[in-house]
């Protein structure tokens, strides 16, 4: 697979498909993915591709999101039916396979699962999950915060970020997908 060409094609698509701030977030997420991939022995180009593509469907209308996401043959949960924008990762995973010829199972898994997490995720999926939440454009991310996280193992890092995210969702009174709770339980077992 010619990562450079695919990354450039996806970058152009993403730049046209989302607003400027979402595109800038995607670039920062790609750069953070690249950094975390290097730290964890994963091809950094795979990480960059995941980051630049993860939100490419964020601005799709609901019917198109549902149409794309349905092609992954997984059920659409009640939370996703209630708020179809949560399907953007699953839709992007289908889109990169269908329209850009990406067939790497880890890249597909990472993009599809970056919103809720999940059980038995590959290393790349955990990296994208974290990178999306700790890219330097996020309000809560400081150099000290990033330095502290970089000292942790990947599972410890994901657990820390996921716990913070669950606390944030609880404060906002938001519902949490069951996959996210399963993800948390699995990480708790892995780090003990």
| Mean pLDDT rating | 95
Q: How much of the residues is beta strand, in percent?
A: under 5%
C-alpha end-to-end distance = 38 Å
Q: Write the H/E string, N to C.
A: HHHHHHHHHHH
> What are the low-pLDDT stretches, counting only 5+ consecutive residues below 50?
none
- Number of helix segments? 11
Description:
Helix content is 69%, strand content 0%. The protein contains eleven helices and no strands. The chain has helices spanning 3-17, 20-39, 44-53, 62-70, 78-82, 88-100, 105-112, 123-134, 143-150, 154-171, 178-191. Helix 2 (20-39) packs antiparallel against helix 3, helix 4 (62-70) packs across helix 6 (88-100) and helix 7 (105-112) packs across helix 8. It is globular, with a radius of gyration of 16 Å. The model has no long low-confidence stretch (mean pLDDT 95).
In short:
The chain has 192 residues and is mostly helical. 69% of the residues lie in helices and 0% in strands.
Properties at a glance:
69% helix, 192 residues, mainly alpha, globular
Sequence-ordered SSE layout with sheet pairings:
Layout: H1 3-17, H2 20-39, H3 44-53, H4 62-70, H5 78-82, H6 88-100, H7 105-112, H8 123-134, H9 143-150, H10 154-171, H11 178-191
